[in-house]
Design a protein that fits this description.
- α10 (175-192) links the parallel β2 (168-172) and β3.
- The protein is α/β, with parallel strands linked by helices.
- The termini are far apart.
- It contains 27 helices and 20 strands.
- α4 packs across α8 (136-151) and α14 runs antiparallel to α15.
- The strands form five sheets. The protein has a nine-stranded mixed sheet, with helices on both faces. Strands 11-19-17-18 form a four-stranded antiparallel sheet.
């Protein structure tokens, strides 16, 4: 690490702390994620497994376009003599995204919403990072708040006091994260106020307490010293925080008179307290202070929440997710979006950098529709894989807690190539899907994906054409619940065993035909086993259908699945309702077209292509009559498939038909026998060598 990195005049110290924290977590993270998939993360494991550091430029983008946006909208509402762009330039906020031109209806809505901002005071702004990690976001928010205070005529010393007592708050489940955040915020305060460390300050940065190891009876000695009302509230809070280290900032706390309780606890005469009482008082204060932050509404919420799917949740957390966050229960990050989006004041901003999956996947559809119905997407920065140094796509989403039906939000993309030097040269980047659109357009597409870059012509196609589901149906799937026993490669089965049927279950990218390499045991005893374990759902179609790989790292390839073959969970199947092969072939041609792939990349640009994605495609049924062309494509693809040993119909390599009989032996010795795995006589005969 370069010594110059520690030069406070250059900045970047908080980023050093963040990287150190991530490095500190490397070993426990590796231990956590190396656990079997069946392992459920708990307590400290959640923090270790989900810790992802947010690069400095993304933090600046997030804070400038939420906290900075709030204050600039306040200035515009107050006098309006300068534009957003001019004000952002005055503050030197290089990542600030000004709102685009708005229709008259939206201007009326914005004006009505922002009337209250005219009287906003900087010292009244409430800001929180509910998953603060090492405090990176808090520290940059401190800088932005300082810029605003100075612009309002405050001294740096006075502003520092107000920021740490009035404005900034942070929470985390990890004690080490809390310690680093506390240190980072206090060092930032020390930068602006040299005397700050000599004054006894209690800043609003806490680790979330956990009461699972406390018996409520142990508090009786404290309860005897308090009023009945305070005791009742403390008992409720003790119950709420039983899973504090696991549920963290997702906990919801009602409104209580916290100041009254703290005052009553402070009123106890410490000089006459027993050693038994003192830790109970401290624990109670710890719970109350964290509960106060959880209960309080905020002008601005910014965080990089933990990313963890429901499969890794403990039974307690999974139950909590289903009961409290039914629309967003699929992942911790989506639950944070729901929890803290609703924690902002009317007109306030919530900003989170999350996985991009919430924008497209069906498992987040309810949450997505709820967002589009209740909130306004002010700004969205969509980032490709590895932009944040992680191997999946992410997105910075900035929501405003008000619905502006006619508002045009700002959307754009950052590609991996844009950050080869660490940061993008400019934001937004010309050509990277930059668009200003009304979020109502997303509802015109089935599933309401956040497809911000599509044209009006694209949207019209969903209105003018039938959905695939009108003409096709799913035939279900088969799950063996023991693939190692019941699924084989076809060459592993001796003879012509009628109990084993071909099964499409993944494979390489192929269109029209192929990947018939797996067979499944379809004997009566095997079928009974599948059924007992709930694995048979319309698993054997009497009709030919269309299949594809459920998961692929490239574009999906759609293929013919011949009749009377089982379906699998790895390769979904649909068949025409009419059972007409012309309909089947016409759709197969459409699905393999460039037009369809473009549509799929809009409705679901992830690795999974689900049945619902296909059934909700706009399909020009009456206009698509390409069955003869597709028959030829299937024939060509089948001929290609049968040219190689993976096909059960393979007879001889096509090159052999171009080799004269007297040269076959030479070809055999030079090509076949040089392969150490091909030295037996059956291979000699198989290749047709005389």
């Amino acid at each position: 690490m370069d010594e110059a990195d520690f030069d406070v005049t250059r900045g970047g110290q908080v980023e050093i702390i963040g990287w150190l924290y991530q490095y500190y977590n490397t070993e426990p993270k590796e231990v956590a994620i190396s656990q079997p998939k069946s392992h459920k993360f708990r307590n400290n494991e959640i923090a270790s497994a989900t810790q992802i550091f947010t690069p400095d430029w993304i933090v600046k983008y997030m804070v400038q376009n939420s906290l900075g946006k709030l204050w600039i909208r306040h200035i515009v509402a107050k006098n309006g003599s300068l534009s957003e762009k001019q004000l952002a330039e005055q503050f030197q906020w290089q990542y600030y995204m000004e709102d685009g031109p708005q229709p008259k209806e939206a201007i009326v809505e914005i004006t009505s919403t922002e009337n209250s901002l005219e009287d906003l005071n900087i010292q009244d702004i409430k800001f929180i990072d509910p998953a603060m990690g090492s405090g990176h976001i808090l520290v940059y928010a401190f800088d932005v708040l300082m810029d605003i205070y100075i612009s309002e005529g405050f001294s740096k010393r006075e502003a520092t006091e107000l920021i740490i007592t009035n404005n900034l708050s942070g929470l985390d489940i990890d004690m080490r994260a809390f310690q680093l955040s506390y240190f980072s915020v206090m060092m930032k305060a020390r930068q602006y106020n040299r005397r700050i460390l000599s004054v006894n300050h209690s800043i609003n940065v806490f680790s979330i307490p956990d009461t699972s190891d406390l018996a409520i009876e142990s508090f009786n000695v404290l309860f005897e010293q308090l009023t009945e009302k305070t005791v009742a509230i403390l008992k409720e809070l003790l119950a709420i925080f039983v899973h504090g280290s696991e549920f963290g900032s997702l906990l919801k706390v009602g409104q209580y008179n916290f100041e009254m309780i703290l005052s009553e606890l402070d009123g106890l005469n410490e000089h006459q307290l027993s050693f038994e009482l003192i830790p109970l008082i401290e624990k109670s204060k710890e719970i109350i202070k964290a509960a106060k932050l959880l209960a309080q509404p905020y002008h601005v919420v910014i965080t990089n929440p933990p990313y963890m799917g429901s499969s890794r949740m403990s039974p307690a957390l999974a139950k909590f997710a289903k009961e409290v966050y039914p629309n967003s229960k699929s992942d911790l990050f989506s639950m944070f979006m729901e929890r803290w989006g609703s924690a902002t004041l009317s007109g306030g901003y919530s900003c989170m950098v999350t996985m991009q999956s919430w924008m497209f996947l069906s498992s987040f559809e309810k949450m997505r529709k709820n967002i589009l119905t209740k909130y306004t997407i002010s700004n969205l920065m969509h980032m490709e894989n590895n932009v944040m140094g992680i191997a999946f796509g992410t997105a910075v989403t900035i929501l405003r807690n008000t619905l502006l039906p006619d508002f045009s939000g700002t959307y754009h993309q950052i590609k991996t190539t844009d950050v080869t030097k660490g940061i993008p040269a400019v934001v937004p980047i010309t050509g990277n899907r930059f668009n200003r659109t009304n979020q109502a357009n997303f509802k015109k597409i089935p599933g309401s994906p956040i497809a911000y870059w599509v044209s009006n012509q694209f949207l019209v196609s969903f209105k003018n054409f039938d959905f695939v589901s009108k003409h096709f149906e799913s035939t279900g799937r088969l799950k063996t619940h023991n693939n190692a026993k019941y699924i084989r490669y076809w060459w592993e089965i001796l003879g012509n065993n009628q109990h084993w049927l071909f099964l499409h279950n993944g494979g390489e990218y192929r269109k029209y035909f192929g990947n018939e390499i797996y067979v499944v045991n379809y004997s009566k005893s095997a079928i009974d086993f599948y059924s007992i374990h709930g694995g048979m759902v319309g698993s054997n179609s009497a009709y030919s259908g269309i299949t594809w790989n459920l998961i692929t790292s490239a574009n999906p390839g759609f293929r013919l699945k011949e009749e009377k073959l089982p379906n699998s969970s790895g390769a979904p199947t649909i068949i025409p309702i009419s059972h007409d092969k012309n309909d089947l072939f016409s759709l197969l041609g459409f699905l393999n077209s460039k037009v369809c792939i473009k549509i799929l990349n809009v409705v679901n640009p992830t690795l999974n292509t689900n049945i619902s994605n296909i059934m909700n495609l706009p399909y020009p049924y009456k206009m698509t009559k390409t069955s003869d062309i597709v028959r030829h494509c299937i024939f060509s693809s089948k001929s290609d498939w049968d040219s190689f040993e993976l096909s059960k119909s393979f007879y001889a390599h096509p090159l052999l038909s171009h080799i004269a009989d007297d040269n076959l032996s030479i070809w055999y010795y030079s090509v076949v026998l040089t392969n150490r795995g091909a030295k037996n006589v059956p291979i000699f005969r198989l290749w047709g060598v005389k």
